[in-house]
Amino acid sequence: MNDNLALQVLPVFKTYDLEHNTFSTIRFECANCGLDSIKVGTFDEMPALTRRKLAKNRLTGLPDVDSWIIFQLDLSDYIITTLTPNMFCGAVSLSKVNLGRNPLRTLQVTSFLRIPGLLKLDVSRFLSVRGNLLRRITVEELKATPNLASLDLSHNSLDCDSEFTEAMQCIMLAY
Fold first, then answer.
1. What is the residue-averaged pLDDT of the chain?
2. Most CB within 10 Å of its CB: which of 20, 57, 87, 100?
3. What integer pLDDT is reported at residue 113 of this predicted model?
């Protein structure tokens, strides 16, 4: 469904009269389709869907993801300016999130704190915030993501102050 600017709205996908449920969709791509919102329930009848590539759309957020079993989520090239506290609530299996090229100014770690059953914050093993408007990265944000294996901060105008130096030392000590 990629590169279909006329689409603009996704339907709430439904399956009717599937006697044997003989197939499952595990990957869904709808990049560059002019989407500005996703309705609650859009993916409810796709329980095996673990990867969603929704990059290059006009979305400013996501619907409730409580029922989403998701491992990889591509939210790059949106117009997301802030991460809401409930944005990833329920996404307990999230292992990779790409927030690259959004006008984010801070990482707002609280967006990931409401994941049920989580003892420590493990947002993602791979986090891309490339090409945002980030000015700083803090030690607190890094400590909140103890299992982070890859962090792409490129193409941000980071302030290289003492807080930045401390954060970089924290990264070097972790590896």
1. 77
2. 57
3. 65
DSSP label at residue 110: G
The residue among 86, 31, 93 whose CA lies nearest residue 58 is: 31
Cα distance between residue 82 and residue 59, in whole Å: 12
Cβ neighbors of 3 (< 8 A, separation 6 or more) are 31, 32, 33
Q: Per residue in 78-109, pLDDT tens?
A: 888 888 877 777 676 777 778 888 888 777 77
In a domain, 12, yes or no: no
Residue 172: helix, strand or coil by DSSP? helix
Split into its structural domains, the chain has a count of 1
> How is residue 44 written in tokens?
């409810």
% residues pLDDT > 90 (the chain): 9
3-state secondary structure 39-55: CCCCCCCCCCCCEEECC
Residue 136 lies in a domain: yes
Domain assignment present for residue 149? The answer is yes
| Range of the structural domain that residue 101 is part of | 80-88+97-174
Name which residue leads in pLDDT, 172 or 39.
Answer: 39
Q: What is the DSSP letter of 164?
A: H
Predicted pLDDT of residue 151: 81
- Quick check: is 62 in a domain? no
